[in-house]
Amino acid sequence: MQASYQPIKIALAQINLKVGDIRGNTVCILKSIAEAKLLSSDLIVFPELTITGYPPEDLLYRKGLYIQVEQAMDQILASTLDIDVILGLPRLVDGKAYNSAAYIRDGKILAVYDKWALPNYSVFDEKRYFHSGKKACVVEIKEIKIGLTICEDIWEPGPTKAAVTRGAQLIININASPFHQGKYLNREASVAKRAEENGVSVVYLNLVGGQDELVFDGASFVMNAKSEITTRLAAYQEQLEIIEIDKNTLAPKPSKIVPHPQKLDAIYQALVLGVRDYVGKNGFKGVVIGLSGGIDSALTLVIAIDALGVENVEAVMLPTRFTSGISLTDAETMAQGLSVNYKVIPIEPAFETFLNMLTPEFEGRPVDATEENIQARIRGLILMAISNKKGAMVLTTGNKSEMAVGYSTLYGDMAGGFDVLKDVPKTLVFALSRHCNQESELIPTRIIERPPSAELREDQTDQDSLPEYEVLDAILELYIEQEMSIDEIIAQGFDENVVCKVTRLVDINEYKRRQAPPGIRITPKAFGRDRRYPITSGFIDKIIR
To answer: Active site includes 48?
Structure first.
């Protein structure tokens, strides 16, 4: 008699957590467990460090954190009758912290796996906090042996190989893998290697949501032993999805495969989710944006409205004598088209007052960038005053190209709580703006097409002192993300004087970037956690001949 088809039903809980909110995270966990039970699941799988959220950073040094984790575990254990649970948590054992996964059944922890491969590059510094486990962990459910791994473990051959050597027939890998361009393809390629090397299927469960400058994009998936995707969850969305594993063949049953979003849509969704969670998780009522009539603030406004709803966004135009009629018209047209709360607060009276106040101090000195910075700082002061009075966070609008070369004003356009475009190069700002206009003209076409200008002096354009953005961004990508030397960049065909000027601007403006608000990471080398250069440095990355 042929064996009956008895699949194991596994619930994948792709959920959005808040770092340190152990009580709130526990509520989310319990809700997901209850839902999985209603769907007759045999097992539910949660992301890496589920209870604390990821990354908890120096919270891991607080003993009180582990006490709260233990209390949360007591609640969770009580809810695990009739369903098995794989859950991420930090553990403190004999004074040593571990990034762990617990396997729970009927109110008891049957096994614990401690993360083997601890990443210590890019945005990760797990060796600062955790000790490595170095031991495989295999558990059994309904006659199928499952090997547990955590995030970075799947990028290296050792942990999966060790689990299979101990008899694992299926690998479950729980993750908190942050987004950057192309990351989902890298993940799937890495998992394909492990599947092919070991002849096993892999369940890859990822976190979703924004946490400070990181965005976790979800896009969890299941891959069979032939390295074929059999299930993929949506990116940027919370989801509880049931998959089935055939007990006889050990193969995952094919189900819905959600396509990856296209490049620009993936970046745009990451920016939207990052804003929504940063503002919401920090308890702000909404946001206020200085709308200049330029492309950066225009794109920031569209993202903010998508993230928070138009009723939670205020746009303020702050013109001076240098603000063109075109900028005033385009800002108003855009605000009206989006039905956003829009105000015009001229800063010319304040600017004139400051100039008069400083006349004795500036006597005999020519007009220069000082007067430009005064305008930016008046704007920052007004936006922060609105923020204080209304409880709305100021979203700054500087892009990565400007942040790289220091074309931003401390305590001026850098004043605010969050910089949406901090890791978005100017050329990508243009591309995203056109992307926003695919279905309707959210951003007036003239804003996209006219030469960029800060409008801090007469007839000013960005290219008065910078190369064209296509050239600038190409040099910045080579210098910052690929970490090429000046000579290597010149060898790529760029003008030596331009390269030396741009790289010098990058080097001398680290002090500004250290004082900038956080912003959403979308590239493999964002300013901040990714790139930690000294402020005071005499190093020049050029061969001295």
So the answer is: yes
Separation CA 105–CA 85 (nearest Å): 7
Q: Is residue 464 scored above 90 in pLDDT? A: no
Round to whole Å and give the CA distance between 353 and 378: 11
Summary mean pLDDT of the chain: 93
Percent of the chain residues past pLDDT 90, beyond the cut: 84
- 410: phi then psi, degrees, rounded to nearest 5: -55, 135
Q: Is the pTM of this model over 0.85?
A: yes
- CA Rg, the chain, in Å? 26
Cβ neighbourhood burial of 163 (10 Å; 0-12, 13-18, 19+)? buried
Question: Of the listed 18, 115, 400, 422, which one is catalytic?
Answer: 115
The CA-CA-CA angle for residues 395, 436, 320, to 5°, reads: 45
Q: Which of 151, 241, 244, 400 is catalytic?
A: 151
| Topology (CATH) of 266-462 | Rossmann fold (3.40.50)
For residue 1, what pLDDT band results from cuts at 50, 70 and 90?
A: very low
Domain ranges within the chain, ordered by starting residue: 8-253, 266-462
Question: Residue length, the chain?
Answer: 545
**pLDDT of 188-240, one tens digit each?**
999 999 999 999 999 999 999 999 999 999 999 999 999 999 999 999 999 99
So what's the pLDDT on residue 2?
Answer: 47
Please answer whether residues 46 and 85 qualify as being in contact, where contact means their C-beta atoms are separated by less than 8 angstroms. yes
Higher-pLDDT residue of 323 and 171 is: 171
238 catalytically annotated: no
**3-class SS string, 405-453:** HCCCCCCCCCCCCEECCCCCCHHHHHHHHHHHCCCCCCCCHHHHHCCCC
8-253 adopts what CATH topology? Nitrilase/N-carbamoyl-D-aminoacid amidohydrolase (3.60.110)
Segments in 208-342 forming alpha helices (H): 263-281, 295-308, 325-338
Is 226 tagged catalytic? no
Ramachandran angles phi, psi of 61, nearest 5°? -90, -5
Amino acid 422: pLDDT: 96
Which residue out of 9, 18, 28, 48 is catalytically annotated? 48
Burial 456-479 (b: 16+ CB within 10 A, else e): bbeebebeeebbebebbbbbbbbb
And the tokens for 527?
A: 């300013």
